[in-house]
Automatic annotation (TrEMBL):
Designated name of the protein: LysR family transcriptional regulator
SUPFAM superfamilies in UniProt: Periplasmic binding protein-like II (SSF53850), Winged helix' DNA-binding domain (SSF46785)
GO CC terms, sorted: protein-DNA complex
InterPro entries membership: LysR_HTH_N, LysR_subst-bd, WH-like_DNA-bd_sf, WH_DNA-bd_sf
Location of the HTH lysR-type domain: 1-53
Record-stated family: Belongs to the LysR transcriptional regulatory family.
Gene Ontology molecular function terms on file: DNA binding; DNA-binding transcription factor activity
Keywords: DNA-binding, Transcription, Transcription regulation
Amino acid sequence: MRYFLVLSEELNFTRAAHRLHIAQPALSQQIRALERDIGAPLLERGSRGCRLTAVGEVVAREAGELLAHADASQERIRAAVSGRQGQLRLALTRSARGGPVDALIAAFRTHHPNVDLVVRTGWTAHNITELLAGKLDAAFVRPPLDNTGLECRHIAREELLMAVPANHPLARERRITRSHIATEPVILWPRENAPGMHDLITRQLWPAHGPRIVREEPDDEQLLLSVAAGTGIAPVPEGRARALRIPGVRLKHVTAPMPTVDLALAHPSAEATPALHGLLSLVDALPGPSAAAPSTRP
């Protein structure tokens, strides 16, 4: 069909063969085969060249549209293979907004502008369920995770700060010790939302007997608003706490050993889509360890 389209433009077998980089007899053979398939002559041949028949004009018009569509499809396929096309379904844990995650998403959109990036926010436990059900391609999560078989790539390690009411005696302390907070009322989120992170925080900050939780809130913003209201104190990842900037809250460092939480990108162990490969390449380019490893609870 492409041979005929070139010939319909040149209306000369010699020039068309030259453009196609084939011998003229081979071109004539291809055109005769096409006419047999269609069941009608496409050209009227003469000593000065040839001209299209009525059927030939229809075939030339249709061939042009078909080949243009085929070329566009081929380009989309090449783009998909390089990760520049398709869809990437991504979830963020609620405490991950700001910092490296936003920078990674912005970089992905810059490098892969033709990918339909669908981003949603949810707790780590919900995001893991969605990943295992095939409803997501990847999720930014807070390790440690249950032994799900998912692969995790390390993104960052953040310091945990203690949020205290502005009028609380601890607000005057330069740094807070674990003995300071041992019996303080604590605001957290429900453990089932992110069991690994919840347990990691309580082990680091209340190693002896656990926190005295007086209130549970659905997200960091509501948690900090409760701190501002004087309900209690709350541990919050530094990036999220500073991004929210809730009035009436003071953020305090905790003495060594410094409490921390990790941020990772989790994805199924099966073959990644081209779009996901694009995101993983950006993650692997980050400084520090980011090698893939099966997720396990320590």
